[in-house]
UniProtKB/TrEMBL annotation:
GO terms for molecular function: DNA binding. It comes from Marinobacter confluentis. SMART domains: HTH_XRE (SM00530). InterPro entries: Cro/C1-type_HTH, Lambda_DNA-bd_dom_sf. Transmembrane segments: none annotated. It comes from the Bacteria. This is XRE family transcriptional regulator. Residues 33-86 form the HTH cro/C1-type domain.
Amino acid sequence: MATIVTNSAQKSKRSPVIFPKNQKALTQLGENIKLARKRRNYTQTLISERTGLSRLTIRKIERGDGTVSIGHYVAVLSVLGLVDDLTKVANDDQLGRKLQDIKLMSKQG
């Protein structure tokens, strides 16, 4: 019987699979964050100091890097005063409502 040895550090460093359409959305988010930072005349260094994140991580966020944790994105959005914008994500679930309506209509009889 063969024993498979895995490197646990390698497992925790697994990168997410991000399809091109989704990467486009992340890139747009990063650009929006960068513009918001610049509008406020904040430097990457200032954001880094206020969040405790490295400047490299701030740069990755501004590029829409999918390997950066959503918690780090939230930290940056918080410094920019934009964290409440996250509550708008999936708020108006049109597809879910349509599916629910179809199911409700089929139960009528």
